[in-house]
Write a structure and sequence with these properties.
alpha/beta; two-stranded antiparallel sheet; seven-stranded mixed β-sheet
């Protein structure tokens, strides 16, 4: 019997894996205690929410902690793993913008600014899609300043977890522990220089590292 081609395997994976992934996210959230170290509430102003790529798995609940009816688009790479993430996020009613600093960057930047101005919140992993790990790319600063919005920084720290050997050291919480969500006050970087803003965001995102 002829083995499936790589293209066929990916096509099957795009149907099955996002559904399984969305169930896993819901199950792990339900079976863990949750603690939010975060502002009590936010204004209705739209914002950019950012977390490290390695902590992306449980990000939907950081956003829905404040927005019960999602109006958000996440900037996701055009690679295959980006396809999986985008389809998984659809199960949480999250939209996506496809592109990154390495593929489709200028187009994604323009579209992201447009969507923010149209009233959408934006989600981004500032060290994605391929690293270096914990290094801030320029895009988040440019987007926030051009669209005149503030940034919420998110760290997601489970007490018990699996950690992959990928470049981002991707973390998946184990059940029956506690997930700590550290969410910053909205940060205003308007008027800052590029490097000043990047250094500030990196410093704040590294506050809760293990």
């Amino acid at each position: 019997m002829k083995l499936l081609t790589k293209k066929q395997k990916r096509a099957i994976g795009l149907v099955i894996l996002p559904f399984i992934g969305s169930l896993a996210i819901r199950l792990l959230y339900a079976t863990n205690k949750k603690k939010f170290h975060a502002p009590q509430s936010l204004s209705d102003d739209n914002f950019i929410m950012a977390c490290w790529h390695g902590e992306l798995f449980m990000i939907p609940y950081a956003y829905t902690h404040y927005r019960k009816n999602p109006k958000v688009k996440l900037l996701i790479s055009e690679h295959f793993d980006g396809d999986l993430i985008a389809r998984t996020l659809k199960f949480f009613s999250f939209g996506t913008i496809r592109g990154s600093s390495t593929r489709g960057g200028a187009k994604a930047l323009i579209q992201s600014i447009k969507e923010i101005k149209n009233g959408f919140d934006l989600g981004i992993t500032p060290d994605g899609p391929k690293g270096p790990r914990h290094e801030i790319h320029d895009g988040i600063v440019v987007m926030a300043q051009k669209a005149k919005v503030k940034i919420l920084l998110v760290n997601i720290k489970p007490t018990s977890y699996w950690q992959l050997s990928s470049w981002d050291k991707f973390i998946i919480p184990k059940p029956f522990g506690e997930i700590n969500y550290f969410i910053s006050e909205p940060i205003d970087i308007s008027g800052m220089g590029l490097n000043e803003a990047k250094n500030l965001l990196k410093k704040e995102l590294l506050k809760h590292e293990y």
